[in-house]
Design goal:
Largest sheet: 5 strands, mixed
Radius of gyration: 21 Å
Structural class: alpha+beta
Number of helices: 8
């Protein structure tokens, strides 16, 4: 699932090219992906993109209002994308046709833009068996339930160690704290594995078991890992971001491979529909974690 670093890099890439561009086409081959539409999606045509940004794991296009006809200025609209587990986008420097450049021929939506004589196209794709990619057209981002419930952004300058430390007052597992979007916005399965490995903490340790030094180490590591990934991904094209993320992982998705820090074998704990990876030497004092039936999110 796309997470904070690659969606930040994606939003920056798109904002640089699409800010000020006119949306000239919005094709939805079926209504399945469009979950909420405060206005008909056709009404976005010929409007201008003000900016492209990120909220948690959501990609947010701010669309300028139509020019008023002597009345009060209209408010902007927001086209918001949740990529879910298997969604992503293809970007082109030309407007798309009706054919889908996607695996299996499926696409959720196609968008075309024109900006000072340059044409661009976006195709939203979902390669999963269950199509989870979702599109919302709303008047305020908070009308999207998942955005309204988001916790603080871990890289927000206003989010500090004291606020972070208050998350670690109960017995939920540490990995579950990092992944819980209502507590922290933007971290998922992959980066929670990477953060905990770098911080030398067990993913299944109760949050309340962490002392002040461990909480501070986790906070600093989280910010370093996320900001470092954003810097590494900056400027990459959308089709380069997923491979770059995979290549940057040290333990996530590396089951059976040697830990790059100590050489021990990276282990896996499988849950229903997901898994985590960790290094016993670096994180659990050599303990091999037992398989569990369901994840603690």
């Amino acid at each position: 699932m796309p997470e904070l670093p690659e969606i930040t890099a994606l939003a920056d890439f798109l904002d640089e090219r699409l800010s000020g561009a006119q949306l000239t086409q919005l094709l939805l081959p079926s209504a399945f992906a469009l979950k909420v539409a405060d206005v008909p999606h056709e009404s976005l045509i010929r409007r201008t993109v003000e900016s492209v940004g990120r909220r948690g794991k959501f990609l947010v296009f701010e669309i300028a209002p139509e020019a008023p006809d002597g009345g009060d200025p209209a408010e902007p609209l927001y086209l918001i994308v949740n990529f879910a587990k298997s969604g992503w986008l293809a970007f082109s420097d030309k407007q798309p046709g009706n054919e889908a450049p996607a695996e299996g021929g499926y696409f959720a939506a196609q968008l075309a833009f024109s900006n000072n004589g340059s044409d661009f196209g976006i195709t939203l794709t979902d390669t999963g068996t269950w199509k989870g990619l979702a599109i919302f057209i709303v008047r305020q981002p908070e009308e999207v339930h998942g955005i309204a419930e988001l916790g603080p952004d871990p890289l927000d300058p206003g989010f500090g160690l004291d606020e972070f430390g208050r998350l670690f007052t109960h017995r939920q597992q540490i990995k579950g704290i990092l992944k819980n979007q209502k507590l922290l916005a933007g971290i998922g399965n992959a980066y929670s594995d990477e953060i905990l490995h770098a911080a030398k903490l067990s993913p299944v340790a109760p949050a309340s078991s962490l002392g002040p030094d461990a909480v501070e180490r986790l906070f600093t590591t989280m910010q370093d890992i996320l900001s470092g990934a954003i810097k590494e991904f900056s400027g990459k094209k959308p089709d380069e971001l997923k491979p770059a993320k995979k290549a940057s992982m040290r333990v996530h998705g590396k089951t059976g491979e040697p830990c790059p820090v100590c050489g021990d074998t990276v282990r896996e704990v499988a849950f229903v529909g997901t898994s985590l990876q960790y290094c016993p030497t670096c994180q659990t004092n050599g303990e091999i974690l037992a398989k569990r039936g369901s994840s603690d999110d």
